[in-house]
Every structure is written in C-alpha cells, then in structure tokens.
C-alpha cells in the first residue's frame, strides 16, 4: 500500500489536548524548521486517534505516524516528504475510523 514513490502535499500535526500532552508542539516546530517546497505543514484539530500521539498525518496518501518524537522529524522530512518513501517502522496502522 505504501510502496513506490509518494508525493506528499500536506502534513497535519495534531495540536489537540491529548497530543499536546505528549509533545505535539515540539513536533510541529520541528516540521516547521525544515520546510519542503510544495508541502504545507499545519497544526490540526484532533485527528481522532487520541492516546497514540503525537499523531502526524501525511496527505494525500494518508500515511499516519504515531508517537512521533521531534528527533524523528528530520527522517520523515528527508525520506518521506523529500524522498517519497514512507518510513514503515513508524507507520501507525490501527487508525480508528
Ligand atoms: S488529540 Fe491528537 S488525535 Fe486526538
């Protein structure tokens, strides 16, 4: 499902209460510090996956990352946003509908 080259255009970083308690502000700041042309980074409302945060959703391919640490953000930016390859080991697969 996540094979091949991805072309992300938007990154949502949940900034709602549960994710903020788990460090989502620093994750958002880390993404904002590494801007990628053509990719918008937005602090979002609750993404409906509370307790697994900080949650990050990459669109349009809908790749979810959970428990993202600020130190992991450069790898996401380099490999996924710039390189077009999702980081399999960080993907959150139990998305609650
Ligand atoms: S508070 Fe972040 S997913 Fe709900």
From TrEMBL:
It comes from the Bacteria. InterPro entries: Thioredoxin-like_sf (IPR036249). This is (2Fe-2S) ferredoxin domain-containing protein.
């Amino acid at each position: 499902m996540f094979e091949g080259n991805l072309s992300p255009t938007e990154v949502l970083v949940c900034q709602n209460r549960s994710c903020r308690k788990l460090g989502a502000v620093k994750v958002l700041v880390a993404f904002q510090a590494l801007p990628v042309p053509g990719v918008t980074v937005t602090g979002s409302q609750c993404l409906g996956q509370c307790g697994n945060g900080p949650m990050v959703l990459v669109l349009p391919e809908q790749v979810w990352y959970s428990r993202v640490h600020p130190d992991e953000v450069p790898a996401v930016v380099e490999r996924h946003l710039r390189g077009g390859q999702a980081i399999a080991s960080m993907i959150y697969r139990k998305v609650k509908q």
